[in-house]
Amino acid sequence: MTTALETQLEFTKLGSRIGAEIRGLDLSQDLPDEVVAQIRHALNQHKALVFREANIRTDEEQVRFASRFGPLTKAHPTVASVDGAENVLPVDSEDGSANTWHTDVTFVLNPPQASTLRSVIVPAYGGETLIASSAGAYQDLPTELRNFADTLWAIHTNDYDYAVPKNLEHAGAEERRKVFTRVKYQTAHPVVRVHPLTGERGLFIGGFAQRLRIVGLSNTESRDILRLLQAYITRPENVVRVSWEPNQLVLFDNRITQHYAPSNYDDQPRKLNRVTVAGDIPRGVEGTQSQAIEGDSSHYSQIVAVGSEVASVGTGG
Q: CA-CA distance, 82 to 272, in Å (whole number)?
């Protein structure tokens, strides 16, 4: 008879740089600590994990699974949660599609360490989620550009609605934008972030860094440099394309990835529910922490001490 201690998860790689999947692991169960530790190890290695036939069918089950990796954030700093579930954010095609490359909630001081997405309504075609490795991008940089990026800091803000580009607006877009920006946030983050568990360096930029600037540079210089660095993140070899099916959950490391949801499913409904795990304050290569410039996000997320998410594996969360 196989015991929990003998359980060895087998993830199948989806790409050489990012992504792995497993089928039939019942995430609705009270997973043994050893299994959670293996999932954490796989997340550190692959950065994005796809759980097919995951057997998570309710928000409560998703919340319980996500909480095994640390304390949870609220659903969002400004956007309402699912009714009766303060940790669950609806990612609904009725509100627009997130078809801009971004890392979740980087406009606050301590963005989530990890995000879970659960399929609720899946279109018959299209609707994938693209996830990119910012560590792979950093490694691709020429040495001179890598050394330059190590010194840079960028200001991230929520002062625009990345989910509804003006050329794709639909009914309710303006009201959603008002809600999204009802509290303004600005935070200075290192352009190169050091992952607190693996020590890897990754480019920490994305959509929320595109609307302002790199500290010390002009807007024009900032746009050019951010566009150059962003192009490395979205190289095909750094991207895994995750297709959605019913009864599926995706877990990705928000500290060292970006993601994008292409609007390629016409008018079909698409709904995922998101639960995010609270994170630490980012640090650059010199160990300097990010600094909040505008907006207090303490109501949204507690600050997690580096390494405490490892300890949380043993709590039974």
A: 11
- Do 88 and 275 form a contact (C-beta atoms < 8 A)? yes
Structurally, the chain folds into a number of domains equal to: 1
Tell whether the model's pLDDT for residue 312 goes beyond 50: no
In a domain, 99, yes or no: yes
Residues with catalytic annotation?
Answer: 102, 104, 259, 274
Domain assignment of residue 174, given as a range:
75-244+251-298
* Cβ within 8 Å of residue 179, ≥6 positions away: 78, 79, 80
The three-state secondary structure class of 162 is coil
For 137-152, what is each residue's pLDDT tens digit? 999 999 999 999 999 9
Identify which of 227, 268, 274, 19 has the alpha carbon closest to the alpha carbon of residue 130: 19
**Statement: the pTM of the whole predicted model exceeds 0.85:** yes
Tell me, yes or no, whether 82 lies in a domain: yes
In a domain, 8, yes or no: no
At a CB cut-off of 8 Å and minimum separation 6, what does 192 contact? 138, 149, 150, 152, 201, 202, 203, 204, 284, 285
* CATH number of 116's domain: 3.60.130.10
Confidence of residue 313 (pLDDT cuts 50, 70, 90): very low
Query: From CA 176, how far away is CA 304, in angstroms rounded?
Result: 30
Q: Is residue 51 part of a domain?
A: no
